[in-house]
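FORM 12-B: Structure-to-Sequence Request
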C-alpha cells in the first residue's frame, strides 16, 4: 500500500487513540493492563523496536507471553530525548515496512515503560533487581563493549570501566549497572537474569559475559564467580535493515494517518537466531519465527561477514563518490561489480553453509535486500563507526584469506577506501563530516597515509598484526596510491578485471 493523503488529520499515537487509527494500520489486540514486565532492554533505538520488540509483540498478538513485556532503559544522556518522545505516546511505536511494491504500517506496544536517564543509574538497577525481570537485553552498538582491539577482551584501562570498578554502586555503564543489580539479587537470594546481547558482534554472548564478569572481578571476585557460574549469556545473531528515522519517514507516517514522533522504518525481512541457553526462563520465541539453536556461530559468521562486511564494502566508496544510499551503490555498476567480486572470491570461500541455505544463496538474498530502493539507508549511517565495524566485519575474512593463501586484493581495496573516506573530503570536493568516535585520529592518520600508506595499516588498534603481512600491506599501498592519483573509479575498474586467484 502506498501512502495517500487522508481525508482526516493524522491521529496522535496514544493507547486511547488506537481505535481511531485508519483501518489499514495494524494495531495491538492486547491491553496494556494485561501486561507485566519480564525484560529490561538497554539501548532502545530503532533497531530494537523494529526487531526484538516486534517479536515480543507478535507473541502478545497471539495471546502469549503477557509476563514478558519490555521496560526500556538507557545509560547515556542522549537517550533522554527518545524517552520523552516514547512516554508521550505511551511507549507505542509505528513500524513502517518498506517494500519495493509499497509500504504498510503496524503499531506495536510490547514496551510498557521507559526508565529515567540518570547519573548512577539507580532506577535501572532497581528495576533489574526485581525478580520479575528474567532477561536483560542490550543494543549498545559494536563499539559500546569497551573491548581491547588486540585481545578482544574488556579494556580495563577505559575511564568508564575504571570508574565503575571503583564506584560499583554508582555505575556509568550498562555493564556496571548489570553488575550492581546482580550483586543485589545475589544478596537477596534472587536468581540471576539472562543477559542477552543483540549487537552485531561474533560471539556476542561470550563477549558480553567477559565484559560483565570481567568488570565484576575488578571489585568483587566472589561476585564475579557467582555471575559466571549462575547467569547465562547466550550468543545471538540479529538481522533486519533499519534506516535512521528522517523527516521523510515522519512524512510517510503522517500520510498513513498516524502522528508518531518516533516512527521506525524497516525492510520486509527479519531474522533472529539465539543460543538456547537461558537461566531464568524465556518467551516461546520459536513460535514467532526465532531460531533457537546451539550453533549460533555458523549463522552469525555468515551474516556478519556477508551482510555486515558487504555494507562496509559499499558504504566507504559510496561516501567518497557521493552516492547517498546503499541501494544507490548497488545500482552503480562499478560499485556493484566490486561488491560481487570481493564477496565471491574473498568472503564466501571462508563462510560455511547453515541449515537451509548456502553462502551463495545468502549473498543473493543480501544483494536483493541491499538493492531495495524503498529503503533509504544512507551510506553515512552504514559507514559510521568504521573503527569498530571494519575490524569486526572484514578482518575475519582477511585473516582466513591470508591463512589459506587466497587473494586479499579486494579486502585491501576496501581498507584503502576506508582510509580515503577518513580523509574527510569526497572526490567532488564536498566535506565528509566526522562520522566515527575516533574521527580526529583517523583523519590525521588518513591524511598522513597519502604520503606513507603503511601508516594506516600499522594502526594496531584496528589491524593488529595485519600491517606486517606483506601481501596485504603491498596491495593496500597500491590501491591507496591509485585512489589518490587517479580516483576511486579507476581503482574499481582495475580491480574487477583482475583474474581470480
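FORM 12-B RESPONSE
SEQUENCE OUT:
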Amino acid at each position: 500500500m502506498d501512502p495517500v493523503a487522508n481525508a482526516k488529520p493524522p491521529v496522535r499515537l496514544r493507547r486511547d487513540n488506537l481505535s481511531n487509527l485508519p483501518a489499514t494500520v495494524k494495531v495491538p489486540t492486547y491491553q496494556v493492563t494485561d501486561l507485566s514486565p519480564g525484560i529490561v532492554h538497554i539501548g532502545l533505538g530503532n533497531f530494537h523496536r523494529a526487531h526484538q520488540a516486534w517479536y515480543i509483540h507478535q507473541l502478545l498478538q497471539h495471546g502469549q507471553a503477557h509476563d514478558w513485556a519490555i521496560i526500556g532503559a538507557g545509560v547515556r544522556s542522549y537517550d533522554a530525548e527518545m524517552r520523552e518522545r516514547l512516554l508521550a505516546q505511551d511507549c507505542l511505536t509505528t513500524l513502517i515496512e518498506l517494500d519495493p511494491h509499497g509500504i504498510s504500517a503496524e503499531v506495536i506496544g510490547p514496551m510498557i515503560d521507559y526508565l529515567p536517564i540518570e547519573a548512577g543509574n539507580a532506577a535501572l538497577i532497581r528495576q533489574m533487581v526485581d525478580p520479575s525481570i528474567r532477561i536483560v537485553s542490550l543494543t549498545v552498538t559494536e563499539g559500546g563493549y569497551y573491548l581491547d582491539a588486540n585481545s578482544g577482551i574488556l579494556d580495563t584501562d577505559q575511564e568508564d570501566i575504571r570508574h565503575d570498578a571503583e564506584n560499583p554502586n554508582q555505575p556509568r555503564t550498562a555493564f556496571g549497572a548489570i553488575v550492581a543489580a546482580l550483586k543485589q539479587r545475589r544478596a537477596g537470594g534472587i536468581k540471576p537474569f539472562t543477559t542477552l546481547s543483540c549487537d552485531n558482534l561474533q560471539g556476542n554472548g561470550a563477549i558480553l559475559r567477559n565484559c560483565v564478569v570481567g568488570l565484576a572481578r575488578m571489585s568483587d571476585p566472589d561476585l564475579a564467580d557467582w555471575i559466571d557460574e549462575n547467569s547465562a549469556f547466550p550468543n545471538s545473531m540479529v538481522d533486519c535493515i533499519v534506516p535512521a528515522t528522517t523527516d521523510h519517514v515522519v512524512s510517510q507516517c503522517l500520510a498513513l494517518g498516524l502522528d508518531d514522533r518516533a516512527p521506525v522504518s524497516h525492510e520486509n525481512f527479519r531474522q533472529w537466531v539465539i543460543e538456547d541457553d537461558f537461566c531464568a526462563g524465556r518467551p516461546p520465541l520459536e513460535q514467532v519465527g526465532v531460531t533457537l539453536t546451539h550453533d549460533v556461530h555458523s549463522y552469525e559468521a555468515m551474516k556478519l561477514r556477508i551482510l555486515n562486511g558487504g555494507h562496509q564494502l559499499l558504504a566507504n566508496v559510496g561516501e567518497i563518490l557521493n552516492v547517498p544510499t546503499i541501494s544507490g551503490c548497488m545500482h552503480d555498476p562499478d560499485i556493484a561489480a566490486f561488491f560481487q567480486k570481493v564477496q565471491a572470491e574473498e568472503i564466501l570461500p571462508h563462510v560455511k553453509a547453515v541449515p537451509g541455505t548456502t553462502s551463495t544463496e545468502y549473498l543473493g538474498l543480501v544483494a536483493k535486500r541491499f538493492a531495495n530502493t524503498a529503503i533509504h539507508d544512507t551510506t553515512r549511517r552504514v559507514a559510521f563507526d568504521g573503527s569498530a565495524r571494519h575490524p569486526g566485519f572484514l578482518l575475519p575474512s582477511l585473516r582466513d584469506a591470508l591463512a589459506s593463501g587466497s587473494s586479499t586484493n579486494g579486502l585491501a581495496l576496501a581498507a584503502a577506501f576506508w582510509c580515503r573516506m577518513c580523509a574527510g573530503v569526497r572526490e567532488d570536493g564536498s566535506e565528509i563530516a566526522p562520522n566515527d568516535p575516533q574521527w580526529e585520529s583517523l583523519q590525521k592518520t588518513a591524511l598522513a597515509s597519502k604520503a606513507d600508506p603503511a601508516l594506516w595499516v600499522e594502526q594496531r588498534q584496528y589491524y593488529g598484526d595485519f600491517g606486517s603481512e606483506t601481501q596485504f600491506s603491498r596491495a593496500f599501498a597500491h590501491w591507496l596510491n591509485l585512489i589518490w592519483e587517479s580516483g576511486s573509479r579507476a581503482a574499481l575498474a582495475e580491480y574487477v578485471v583482475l583474474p581470480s586467484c
